[in-house]
Design brief:
6-stranded parallel sheet, UDP N-Acetylglucosamine Acyltransferase, domain 1, 2 helices
């Protein structure tokens, strides 16, 4: 298949880029913007597509067989973990910190931390999770194993294993099958 508009870095380029760790068969598109390489670990067979924006001023751990699709954003100031076999569809936004909107505190990255409010905390996405296009995940959230989140949802609290969620805020809409666990074992 012919390609226009960039390419994926080859393994030697990734190994020399300055990542904390890069696994085998990792694909990062040349049009992805990634800051804080020294704070990022990427597992085997993971792909980060064009126009993804990753800002890792804190630890970012991406497992194996993870896909981060185009136009996704990961803000990892207070840590983000994306575990094995998980997918971020196009336009997913993950925030490990957010500003205060009440006016009680200042906002933005140019202000000293003692004048800032808002929420912050580690975001964990367990194995076999799929996050639908345009979904926003707020700080201090754990999305447990096997969860699916529908497109354009807002995740602001922990989500229980093997369930399907959608909406603003995301609410449970059903249970998810576990057939994919056998498929993963077969790899």
């Amino acid at each position: 298949m012919k390609q226009l508009g960039g390419r994926y870095f080859d393994q030697s380029e990734l190994l020399n880029a300055g990542f904390a760790r890069v696994g085998k068969n990792v694909k990062v598109h040349t049009h992805a913007n990634i800051y804080g390489l020294e704070n990022i670990e990427i597992g085997d067979n993971t792909r980060i597509d064009d126009f993804a924006l990753i800002v890792a001023t804190g630890a970012l751990k991406i497992g194996r067989n993870v896909s981060v699709h185009s136009h996704s954003f990961i803000g990892s100031k207070f840590g983000v973990e994306i575990n094995n076999f998980s997918t971020l569809a196009p336009g997913v936004k993950i925030f490990s910190s957010s500003d205060d909107y009440t006016g009680e505190f200042m906002t933005g990255p140019t202000v000293s931390p003692e004048k800032l409010g808002g929420d912050s905390g580690l975001v964990v996405i367990d194995e076999h999770v799929i996050i639908g296009a345009g979904t926003i995940i707020l700080p201090n959230v754990t999305i447990k194993q096997g969860v699916s989140v529908g497109a354009l949802s807002l995740v602001k609290s922990d989500l229980e294993s093997w369930t399907m969620y959608a909406g603003i805020p995301a609410v449970k809409i059903g249970n998810r099958k576990r057939d994919l666990l056998q498929l993963a074992e077969d790899l």
